[in-house]
Design brief:
The protein is built from 16 helices and 19 strands. It is of the alpha/beta class and about 475 residues long.
Length: about 475
């Protein structure tokens, strides 16, 4: 038996039945939260860790991340969505080797742990072969993160049902072998595939009881969405990423069915996905989960996504008040605790893990983040929840995943960071040369691919 007593910290449980924050200790036994309270009598062999002055919160959940792209960090920071699709998916993705997949995924997942994220929805839509998928899963295992490996197929392939045989092989093989892994399907969905394909894919997910997730932006949902509805395939294990052009009545209907929404506000706003859907989800009585989409564009810090979503939501509340009363809102109903909830338990819910992680509660797995709240940018503070939300990644002192230290005293544990960075540099350097290659052949091909992508985004002008 292994036992750790985390003592002296201020704890934010995010559990609805507990205070906003509290001074309690946490006993972790064999990876599970065994007790929360004061004066805990711990077994004699317990490792007691004094965390006075720190804040403990549930490990963050980044519900949507294309982790495999991390070795190309910031290469697309100035790209629009069509540029990203043409350059990354049109020119580079098919040149990934299995080892590129492993290295990118290990690098991206490790960076997530460093920032206090303990669970990711690893939206892996470059499973060119079975070996590519296996290598990406190896990268997750190397990092020590908890992940839902969301098996996806590359962009640009013709409309056909998901490669379920490959998915099943992964589920019974490397995913089953990884104690911190579960699997799900990352599909094109009714927005990007035919109704027949969407129904086949979502039926396959339902039959297997796994999460199925899809992108939606740039294009109003068409008939295929109704076909999925008629097959009764919208449900709690269905996740929509972005959802930025779904009409309000349909948002409400999907929420009624239990569908979850994941917003990635930073790149949604910056790349042309349109405004995020957070306000509509909240207005309908729902709660969004959050992601960062890709290290190619933004930092990968899900706290930034949470803060952006909160600000956007409050802007909507002020606008509503102005319209109704001529004044800004006297107070805003959405607070920092809501934003922290979106980045923890709501992410866990979207990934089908709400019973396992996302809050600090007895019986849940001990996925925890320890924030050093004593630094000059953190102390003094007068609201631990706001401090946890506004903390920068450097304030993440420690991270436990299933009760195992993955970061301690501000240093990652169990990973050779220099070696991982050297691998990522080698892989990223080869790939970035493909992104930036500029011969005649490249220029012609680039123009053709961009034209094809642009056609997808063209529609009537809006007034
Ligand atoms: Zn995405």
């Amino acid at each position: 038996m292994s036992a750790i007593l985390l003592a002296g910290a201020t704890v934010i449980t995010v559990a609805s039945h507990r205070p906003r924050d509290e001074r309690v200790d946490i006993l972790v036994v064999d990876g599970t939260i065994a007790e929360i309270g004061r004066d805990i009598t711990a077994p004699a062999t317990t490792e007691v860790v004094d965390l006075t002055g720190r804040i403990i919160a549930p490990g963050l959940v980044n519900a949507h991340l294309h982790t495999w792209q991390a070795a190309l960090r910031f290469a697309g920071a100035d790209w629009t969505l069509p540029e990203y699709l043409a350059r990354m998916h049109g020119e580079v993705a098919h040149r990934y080797t299995p080892d590129d997949m492993r290295i990118g995924t290990a690098s991206g997942a490790t960076a997530q742990i460093d920032a206090g994220v303990t669970t990711i929805g690893d939206w892996c839509h470059n499973c060119l072969t079975h070996d590519h998928a296996v290598a990406a899963i190896e990268g997750l295992v190397e990092s020590g993160i908890r992940a839902v490996f969301l098996h996806g197929t590359p962009h640009g392939v013709r409309d056909r049902p998901h490669d379920i045989a490959m998915f099943d092989r992964l589920m019974s093989g490397p995913i089953a072998a990884g104690p911190l892994l579960t699997g799900g399907l990352a599909i094109k969905g009714p927005q990007l595939s035919s109704a027949t394909t969407a129904v086949a894919d979502m039926t396959a997910a339902r039959d297997r009881g796994v999460v199925v997730t899809m992108h939606q932006s740039n294009g109003i949902p068409g008939d295929a969405w109704d076909v999925v509805d008629r097959h009764r395939l919208w449900g709690p294990r269905v996740n929509i990423v972005h959802g930025t052009q779904i009409p309000t009545p349909l948002v409400r209907r999907l929420l009624d069915r239990g569908v979850t929404f994941t917003s990635t506000p930073e790149n949604e706003l910056g790349q042309g996905h349109r405004s995020d859907i957070v306000a509509e989800v909240v207005a309908a009585g729902g709660s969004p989960s959050l992601g960062t989409d890709g290290d190619m564009f933004v930092s990968g810090d899900v706290r930034i996504a949470a803060r952006m979503a909160l600000s956007r939501q409050r802007a909507t509340e002020h606008e509503d008040a102005r319209r109704d009363t001529g004044m800004i809102a006297h107070s805003t109903p959405t607070g920092t605790a809501d934003a922290l909830r979106w980045a923890t338990i709501e992410g866990a819910r979207a990934l089908g893990l709400a019973d396992t992680v996302g809050t600090v509660e007895v019986g849940k797995r001990a996925d925890l983040v320890v924030i050093d709240a004593t630094g000059v940018s953190m102390w003094p503070h007068h609201d631990p929840v706001a401090a946890a939300l506004h903390a920068h990644s450097g304030a993440v002192e420690a991270v436990l995943v299933e009760g195992r230290w993955r970061k301690r005293d501000h240093a990652l544990v169990g990973v050779d960071v220099a070696d991982l960075q050297a691998q990522a540099w080698r892989s990223g350097s080869r790939l970035i040369d493909l992104v930036r290659a500029d011969g005649l052949h490249r220029r012609v091909r680039r123009r053709v691919v961009q034209k094809v992508v642009n056609r997808r985004f063209s529609g009537p002008r809006e007034t």
